[in-house]
Amino acid sequence: MKKLMSIASLAALAAAPPLSAQDTAKPKMLSPGQIVDQAAPEEWQAIAASDLLIMKLQPDAKGKERQIIIQLMPPPFSQGWVRNIRKLAKANWWDGTRIVRVQDNYVVQWGDPAQEESQRKPLPDGLEVMAEEDYIQQITSEDPPDTIVWSSGSYGVDNYSDMGLFENGWPLASSIGVNDTKTRSHWPVHCYGTVGVGRSLTPDTGSGAELYTVIGHAPRHLDRNIAVVGRIIEGMHHLSSLPRGFGPLGFYETPEEQVPIQSIRLASELPAAEQPRFEYLSTEGESFAKYANRRANREPPFFIKPAGGADICNIPVPVRRVKEAD
Amino acid sequence: MKKLMSIASLAALAAAPPLSAQDTAKPKMLSPGQIVDQAAPEEWQAIAASDLLIMKLQPDAKGKERQIIIQLMPPPFSQGWVRNIRKLAKANWWDGTRIVRVQDNYVVQWGDPAQEESQRKPLPDGLEVMAEEDYIQQITSEDPPDTIVWSSGSYGVDNYSDMGLFENGWPLASSIGVNDTKTRSHWPVHCYGTVGVGRSLTPDTGSGAELYTVIGHAPRHLDRNIAVVGRIIEGMHHLSSLPRGFGPLGFYETPEEQVPIQSIRLASELPAAEQPRFEYLSTEGESFAKYANRRANREPPFFIKPAGGADICNIPVPVRRVKEAD
Question: Could you tell me the pTM of the whole model?
Answer without folding.
Answer: 0.90
